[in-house]
Design goal:
Elements (H helix, E strand, L loop, with lengths): L1 E4 L2 E3 L5 E7 L8 E7 L6 E7 L5 E3 L7 E6 L4 E6 L8 E8 L14 E2 L3 E5 L2
Parallel strand pairs: 2-11
Antiparallel strand pairs: 1-3, 3-8, 4-5, 4-9, 5-6, 7-8, 9-10, 9-11
Length: 123
């Protein structure tokens, strides 16, 4: 089970940190990711991190502004978002996979999803 939080309204230059707490069978997780979706569009990849080790990957449109990290002691993955832009406005979802044993950017490879948290960058 995944519980995402940390969304909100932000202005130009603001930052937000999203959190995703995993519970249950966390020992079986291979990696976790963040995706986002706006109405009428498909869910798109943002960032992913392995549950063990130090591998991460970020979408090109957030590189240099967003970072993904985790705290295994807290079973939590974070998405630090800096210099938020209007196009970052979306519902952000965290996801986990215990089936795909490599870092993946495809939503179909994730089999557990959080409930989503809204991020809105004011114009």
């Amino acid at each position: 089970q995944l519980q995402a939080s940390g969304g909100g309204l932000v202005q130009a230059g603001d930052s937000l940190r999203l959190s995703c707490v995993a519970s249950g069978r966390t020992y079986s997780i291979y990696s976790m990711g963040w995706f986002r979706q706006v109405p009428g569009k498909e869910r798109e990849f943002v960032a992913a991190i392995t549950w063990r080790g130090s591998s991460t990957t970020l979408a090109d449109y957030v590189k240099g502004r967003f970072t993904i990290s985790r705290d295994n002691a807290e079973n939590t993955v974070y998405l630090q978002m800096n210099d938020l832009k209007p196009e970052d406005t979306a519902v952000y979802y965290c996801a986990a996979t215990d089936r795909t044993a490599y870092l993946t950017t495809f939503s179909r490879n994730y089999n557990s999803w959080g409930q989503g948290t809204q991020v809105h960058r004011l114009q």
